[in-house]
Design a protein that fits this description.
Number of domains: 2
Strand content: under 5%
Oligomer: single chain
Number of strands: 2
Number of helices: 11
CATH class of the largest domain: Mainly Alpha
Distance between the termini: 57 Å
Radius of gyration: 26 Å
Structural class: mainly alpha
Largest sheet: 2 strands, antiparallel
Order of helices and strands: HHHEEHHHHHHHH
Length: 282
């Protein structure tokens, strides 16, 4: 009798099942997609927007699976997106390493920071769309690989957030911890390795998440000038030229480019989750 009562109490006291977090996220994404779809189609019907300005979602979906002599459209977009991803990855790596090195130098040498930092800031005031053709044409005349010029443009957009955020992270160390290390006669290299670098990691990954998407944008911008033959930017140009006859294709290329940016951001966010295991207090 006692065993049955204990068993009944155990069954009554059992906690309810908890819905997995990924299921909540999936439901949220689906809900947002449905909301966007309703707004999209309602706006098109309410304002009588023509297809070449805003195609139906079914036209965009049909554009992905439309056959071509080279295969279905989704396969072509995947191949071009992979090429753009390679350009963006090289540019992201170059820009991040360059920006990190510049930030370390500017933190170490105050006089260099006072003279050089204004030029770093001024470099971002130059419209990238204006200098991208010059970089592409100039690198082509030098006999460089076609992807290298796009990677340089991606690196140009990548290094600035890294410089600013890493510099701020290196300077935001706790003053008491810095004084403690000084009292133990720690060298500048030891302070950098044991104190400044760990403190700057959250700032670094914030910059890398910004730069990851910026590198994709830079690679696409580098593909827009006439002469490029591969990349998602080339497909965007083709889609804009034939938008009146095939409006769904342009939006398919835009979605492919957006997905590439999301993947780049997600990769950096995943690396941050694995490496940075703490959050700085506000």
């Amino acid at each position: 009798m006692t065993d049955n009562v204990s068993l009944d109490n155990t069954l009554i006291a059992a906690p309810p099942a908890v819905t997995p977090r990924w299921l909540w996220l999936l439901g949220g994404y689906l809900l947002i997609f449905l909301l966007v779809a309703v707004i999209w189609e309602s706006s098109k019907a309410l304002f009588a927007i023509p297809d070449y300005k805003l195609p139906h979602l079914t036209q965009i979906a049909e554009a992905f699976v439309r056959p071509t002599p080279k295969g279905p459209v989704w396969l072509i977009l995947l191949q071009d997106a992979s090429y753009t991803a390679l350009e963006a990855l090289v540019g992201f790596s170059l820009g991040s390493l360059t920006g990190f090195a510049i930030a370390v130098l500017l933190q170490r040498y105050v006089r260099l920071r006072q003279g050089f930092l204004p030029y770093v800031i001024a470099s971002q005031t130059v419209p990238i769309i204006a200098i991208a053709p010059m970089i592409v044409v100039g690198m082509g005349r030098m006999g460089a690989p076609p992807w290298l010029s796009k990677s340089i443009i991606a690196a140009y957009l990548t290094f600035f957030p890294v410089v600013i955020n890493v510099l701020r992270g290196l300077e935001s160390v706790d003053r008491d911890a810095l004084l403690l290390m000084r009292s133990y006669a720690a060298t500048d290299n030891q302070i950098f390795r044991l104190l400044r670098l760990p403190t700057s990691l959250p700032y670094l990954f914030t910059a890398l998440k910004i730069s990851a998407t910026a590198s994709v944008v830079g690679a696409i911008i580098g593909e827009l000038p006439v002469g490029s033959t591969r990349g998602i930017g080339v497909q965007i140009v083709v889609g804009s030229q034939y938008n009146t006859f095939n409006p769904g294709f342009l939006w398919a290329t835009i979605i492919a480019a957006a997905m590439l940016g999301l993947l780049a951001y997600g990769a950096v966010a995943l690396a941050e989750k694995r490496i940075v295991r703490w959050k700085r207090e506000a």
